[in-house]
Amino acid sequence: MKLIVFFVAMSILLESTLITLPLTFLIILFASVIIRKNEIFALAFFSGLFLDILAFKNVGWSSIFFVIFVFLVFLYQRKFEVETLHFVAITALIGSFIYLFIEGVSFVIVQALVATFIISASFFIFKKKNKKIFTYA
Known about the structure:
Elements: H1 2-17, H2 23-34, H3 39-54, H4 61-76, H5 85-103, H6 108-129
Helix pairs in contact: 1-2, 1-3, 2-3, 2-4, 2-5, 2-6, 3-4, 5-6
């Protein structure tokens, strides 16, 4: 969990200063699929809050979006297999598109596709390196 918090902190700094890709959203999505603990809600809330404060945006919008999206992932984990590349890619594409559209960023479709590629590649590499986590009896 400490590593996830570190990556979230770095993504908040990058996203608030240099880039417009939703890296914080991607890391929270990745953590909610892999870890699946309720602490992700607190991480989503506070990371959205810090992101809004550091980026000088309306405070709370990112927090609300992150928490709602984590809630939806947790809701669908009972009905769907969420630890698959297809689920991660589709939710990243839809979530990134909605988040970037709400933020009013230009080139929304291109950035959503790049974000989907980043999280899909990261999830694929993580899944290949940690096969025993994803084996089911």
